[in-house]
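Input.
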Amino acid sequence: MGEWLPCFMYIDSGADFTLIPYKFGLMLGLKIEEKMHEVYGVGGGIPVILKSTSVRINDVILDVRIGWSLREDVPFILGRLDVFNKFHIEFRENEDAVVFQRVQN
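Output.
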């Protein structure tokens, strides 16, 4: 596996899946080969291509299905699919921190 590309994401329990902007997907080496889908959220419709990629949270590496936006004006969003069932996520507002603790099966 190559170098990891760091990014800061909004953790969104209302988002079905993780979303990344167009140029970041290009940096990951993604190619437009699959069918485009339209997904809807607070900002309206967004054209995306559904992909799978590896994501590292702390020292845990996961295969995560993502929506690669064909637009650049979308935020990085960490959604529920393939992520939330693997961690207990704790928001520590007073410490300005979010803690991801791996779920032990």
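DSSP finds one helix and eight strands in the chain.
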